[in-house]
Design brief:
By secondary structure, the chain is of the alpha+beta class. The chain has one domain. It has 5 helices and 12 strands. Strands 1, 2, 3, 4, 5, 6, 7, 8, 9, 10, 11 and 12 form a 12-stranded mixed β-sheet that branches. Helix 4 (165-184) packs parallel to helix 5 (271-277). The two termini are 17 Å apart.
Length: 295
Amino acid sequence: MVRASWAETVKRLSGITGVSQVWGRQPEWYIWISEKPGPYALVLEHSTGGKTGTHDFHQGLFVVKCFPYPQHVVFESFSAAEQQFLKSSRFDRTHTPVYEARPEIPPSFFNIASLMVTSYPQNRITVFTLESLDTIRLVKTCDTGSAPATDMAHTDASLLRSVPGWEMGYPLFDSLISLYAFSFRLAPKWFRLSRLPGFEHALMADETITMRPCSKSRVFSASLVFAENPTDEPNQWFPVLDEGEEILCESWLDHGTRHSSDIPNPLINPLWWHLAEAEIGSDLSSLCGCCDHGH
């Protein structure tokens, strides 16, 4: 992100209008993308490393957040509490949290997706995986905390939050893949899209929150594998499928695509190949690449 933020041409092609590192206890960045609902936050939640079989790996799990603009149509899909924060003095003119106010914002607010990045340095392979619900729901119900987990259709509930997580999160994923392809001069080799039955969070009568199955949402997961020497089968690099997870699309990107008709499009961007081959120099005018946003 740092390297690409120095190249205005790369930022323009990938839709990124600004990148700003957030200084704190864990790595975090704010990213602005043109014509999107609002600025994004990419927050490292957990990192680990070790061996899987004979392969060394390093892995980072990131939370993806979005701070929607009040005038955007998705603003109303966020909870009333989130909307109140966005309209308050806790957010500045860049529409990101004021540094001093960040501890006041609950960790669950504005979450839209998760991003996992796994690197196998000896094999020169990196895997990016985005996961999100097509609809991230929070409902208020008259059930008690001891009530069994049931589908929304069988309970008396009111909708508090209904965020199109996958639709909002994939554009950031697309832009990050573009930046990686440019920075390492490498295009992705394999792609997989999978789906699981969805769930929702329910605010119970006793004020506890529980998770339960929901037929009104689905979990989508997209994985891209970058490999300098793509001679192995990709399945050993993709995340292990959960029970009941359905593969919608598998593609060796140099050899065609097998897919179902039920795929949210578009997913595979020709720009990844263009930037992997592009010779674009630095246009450094700001140390953080965010001069357009007043930082």
